[in-house]
Amino acid sequence: MENLVKAFIQYLRDEKKLSQNTLLSYQRDIEQYIMFLQEMNVKNIQQSTKTTVSTYVKYQNSQGRAITTISRSLASIRAFYRFLISHDFMKGNPTIGVESPKVEKKIPQILSVEEVEILLNQPKKMGLKGIRDRAMLELLYSTGIRVSELISLDVSDLDLQKCTLRCRSSNRERTIPIAKKCIDIMKEYLDKVRPFMLKNRNEQALFVNTNGNRLTRQGFWKIVKYYTSKANINKDITPHTLRHSFAAHLVQRGRNLKDIQKMLGHSDISSTQVYLQIVNGNM
Question: What's the domain range around 12?
Answer without folding.
Answer: 2-86
